[in-house]
Amino acid sequence: MNWTKFLGETAARIGVLQKETPDMFVGFNAMSVAAKKSGVLDEKTKELIALGIAISTRCDSCIGFHIKSLVRLKTTREELCEALAMIGYMGGGPSIAFGAKALEAYDEFSGR
Questions:
Q1: Per-residue pLDDT tens for 73-98?
Q2: Residue 88 belongs to what H/E stretch?
Q3: Please, are residues 7 and 64 in contact by the beta-carbon 8 Å criterion?
Q4: Which CATH architecture is the domain 3-36+43-109 placed in?
């Protein structure tokens, strides 16, 4: 999969929906800012949690968006793989398959 192209197309579709439902997006964006704010857990930890949920719900676009955030947060491939091992353990075969997709996205977005 070309993750860059896929996320660009996804963002365009979301943009169309945002024009039709602006109030929902105001609320969703406010919730996003509040949830990602560093506190006891830092943003990277929160993004790893979000990635685990994205993998377990088999949401390709969510995987892509959270991997991009993890790359921005300078997550190492080793940190990601350790998280993917835990995600695979908890979610079994399907999570392992979607974890492999997440690793592919990481490699693309990190220029590896």
A1: 999 999 999 999 999 999 999 999 99
A2: helix 77-109
A3: yes
A4: Up-down Bundle (1.20)
